[in-house]
Amino acid sequence: MRKIIKPFIFLLFLSAEFAPAMENNQAIENARNLDTANIEQILQQNLEKLKIDQEAAANNLAKQSADDLLQDPQTPTLGNPNGDVTIVEFFDYQCTFCKAAEPRLREVIESDGSIKLVVKEFPILGPVSLIASKAALASVYQNRYEVYHNALMDHRGPLDRDRVFIIAARVGLDVEQLQKDMNNPQVADQIISNFNLARKLRVRVVPGFFVNTHVLSGLSSETVTARIDFQKEVEAARSQPWP
């Protein structure tokens, strides 16, 4: 009888001793299962909240920097210079997403007739991008910025230094004079100013689009530029009071 009772008592002791640990392990396992089942939803909610917070901060910063964003006299403008709505684009001539958005952007500007496009040269994709931006800004001195800008944006395939100047010659620019004008301090100053403004507005990727002071893209690579409805955004801007 004693041989039977002793093992029974020992088992009771083990059950009492390790029950809390066993319950804790079960709780951990339940938590793991819960996390596994909901991790994607939780992450998505957090990303959406972060996006909303980033956009709200960028909108406030854009309002504070409205003059630099919308009315900088050194920044080239296209479309209607007296338009009642302004679209601002931070872009790079090697950015495929910028080029993909270009036809839709041109279409809404041409069809609307009352939109000003402010183009912020933002060469963040390498040395060739910087050469292209400097050349584009230098083309202002020959009054050929718009045609040259459009030609660079329309170019498909790799862009290198030689191609930048081949395109320049094709649109009627004096390439020798263009290369001299690229060394004008005002060209470098404009690019530096754009970088400083982008940093202030927290624009980190291209394209970065604003309608008036409302940010549409540029804060995160998560933004899908192809989903931007420019006409809808312009109409929304017109419905809002603006100085």
Low-confidence stretches: 1-19
Question: What's the rounded overall pLDDT mean?
Answer: 86
Strand content: 5-15%
* Number of distinct helices: 9
Q: How are helices and strands ordered from N to C?
A: HHEEHEHHHHHEEH
State the separation between the terminal residues, measured CA to CA.
Answer: 97 Å
Could you explain the architecture of this structure?
62% of the residues lie in helices and 9% in strands. The model is unreliable at 1-19 (pLDDT under 50). β2, α3 (96-112) and β3 (115-121) form a beta-alpha-beta unit. By secondary structure, it is of the alpha+beta class. The chain has two domains: 1-64; 65-238, Glutaredoxin. The longest helix has 63 residues, at 2-64. The chain has helices at residues 2-64, 66-70, 96-112, 127-138, 145-154, 161-170, 175-181, 185-201, 230-238, and strands spanning 77-79, 85-91, 115-121, 208-211, 214-215. The protein has a five-stranded mixed sheet with strand order 1-3-2-4-5, with helices on both faces. The protein starts with a helix and ends in a 5-residue tail after the last helix.
